[in-house]
């Protein structure tokens, strides 16, 4: 694109020669006749000099670049989720012929993004995951990344586990409602954003998920955050159906109560 700027105002004497020491001087207004690309100076007024600037791809933002690359009747995709170094897009049918170009622009313009994926299926199944395609950047069958949320760091495989970055505030609000003496059972813990946050506060926290990959990351994330002196210890971690987990934990509590009464 081209942009016009104003600069280099100079005073000239009646003979058209530049007055010494006058470069960059400014006046209260401009006077004189219009002459080509600027204003011809009067005897006492400054001269307006017009410059043309040519802005290339490197000077454009991602939105500006996409608005020039995509056809005029195609909407520029501006909203997407960021999961660590992964940009997660939900492109429409109109973007299908241009999805590779969109992905490469995002890689170029967003320094923290190293992978761009596009959702190709609905969220569902027993593990609440969805089909996706890698449009550009790193990654393949495993899309491992790290996310910081509410003071903790979580490692996860975005393709294999459920994660929604938009729920961070809601997870913090939920844990804020817990009391220090509470015992918490997180039946669908994912990679641990509620269970591990609660473990910093509550008497005991039990984490469970049906997805074995998610359970693996819960244990990884507990060690990872404890190594940073954020001490939290889950009372138990399990991988089973939620109903079975409740039955198991209730039976454990009943057995502990019976043992205490017998002692």
Please name the defining characteristics of this protein.
single chain, alpha/beta, four-stranded mixed β-sheet, three-stranded parallel β-sheet, 6 helices, 13 strands, 21% strand
Give an account of the 3D structure.
There is one protein chain. With 263 residues, this protein is α/β, with parallel strands linked by helices. The chain is 26% helix and 21% strand. It is built from six helices and 13 strands. The protein has a four-stranded mixed beta sheet. A three-stranded parallel beta sheet has the order 11-12-13, with helices on both faces. It has a two-stranded antiparallel sheet with strand order 1-4. Helix 1 packs antiparallel against helix 2 (99-109). The protein starts with a strand and ends with a helix.
Record the SSE blueprint.
Elements: E1 2-6, E2 34-35, E3 38-39, E4 50-54, H1 62-69, E5 81-83, E6 86-89, H2 99-109, E7 115-119, E8 132-137, E9 144-149, E10 152-157, H3 168-176, E11 183-186, H4 195-199, E12 204-208, H5 212-226, E13 236-238, H6 242-262
Parallel strand pairs: 6-7, 11-12, 12-13
Antiparallel strand pairs: 1-4, 2-3, 5-6, 7-8, 9-10
Helix pairs in contact: 1-2
Main beta sheet, described?
A: 4 strands, mixed
Number of helices: 6
**Percent in strands:** 15-25%
Summarize the amount of helix as a percent range.
25-40%
Q: Between the first and last Cα atoms, what is the distance in angstroms?
A: 83 Å
Overall pLDDT: 86
Short summary:
With 263 residues, this protein is α/β, with parallel strands linked by helices. The chain has six helices and 13 strands. Strands 5-6-7-8 form a four-stranded mixed sheet. A three-stranded parallel sheet has the order 11-12-13, with helices on both faces.
């Amino acid at each position: 694109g081209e942009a016009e700027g104003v600069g280099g105002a100079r005073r000239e004497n009646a003979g058209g020669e530049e007055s010494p020491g006058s470069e960059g001087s400014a006046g209260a207004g401009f006077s004189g006749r219009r002459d080509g690309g600027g204003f011809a100076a009067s005897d006492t007024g400054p001269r307006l000099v017009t410059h043309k600037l040519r802005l290339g791809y490197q000077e454009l933002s991602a939105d500006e670049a996409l608005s020039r690359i995509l056809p005029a009747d195609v909407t520029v995709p501006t909203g997407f989720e960021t999961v660590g170094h992964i940009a997660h897009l939900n492109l429409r049918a109109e973007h299908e012929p241009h999805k590779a170009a969109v992905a490469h622009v995002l890689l170029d313009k967003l320094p923290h993004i190293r992978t761009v994926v596009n959702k190709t299926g609905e969220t569902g199944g027993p593990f609440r995951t969805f089909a996706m395609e890698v449009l550009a950047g790193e990654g393949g069958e495993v899309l491992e990344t790290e996310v910081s949320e509410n003071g903790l760091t979580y490692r996860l495989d975005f393709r294999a586990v459920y994660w929604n970055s938009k729920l961070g505030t809601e997870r913090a609000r939920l844990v804020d409602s817990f009391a220090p003496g509470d015992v918490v059972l997180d039946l669908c813990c994912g990679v641990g954003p509620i269970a591990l946050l609660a473990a910093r506060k509550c008497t005991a926290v039990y984490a469970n998920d049906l997805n074995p990959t998610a359970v693996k990351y819960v244990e990884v994330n507990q060690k990872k955050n404890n190594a940073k002196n954020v001490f939290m210890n889950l009372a138990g971690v399990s991988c089973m159906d939620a109903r079975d987990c409740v039955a198991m934990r209730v039976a454990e509590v009943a057995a502990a109560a019976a043992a205490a009464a017998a002692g």
